What does this fold into?
Amino acid sequence: MRNHTLALLALPLLCFGPGSPAGAELNTDPALEGWWKLAGDARDSSSHGNHGVAHGVIYDGTFSAEFDGRKSCVEIPDSDSLDLATGDFTVSAWIRTDEEMDDIIGDVLSKYDPETRKGFSLGLLDNAGVAAGQSNRRHLFF
It folds into this structure.
């Protein structure tokens, strides 16, 4: 069984903070299937070249990106190297949300094959606005 590693990513209403991995080097570890640093673009820094296409993403030049929560996203075309349903895999992301929110956060990463009806989704939910005395907790689900 081959282990896959996917380090990344982004999607609506999320920011990747300055704690993200830095450097411009290409990582040639064959187990690293994708590494999107978001350093001004959506290029894949792994050796697989799974470059993304950014839609409405704002880059601040510090290895982070800002998403509007509605239409902005990074779309990564399908690739055999991203067929993660064949074994164990790891996903890593640095995510920062606004402190006060009045809407759901949503998907961080998802991959789905409609033909086989297999896939996964990684997202965030929050409890904003539930009750005045309740904390504004965030929940990561897979």
Notes: Residues 1-24 have pLDDT under 50 and may be disordered. The radius of gyration is 16 Å. The chain is about 0% helix and 30% strand.
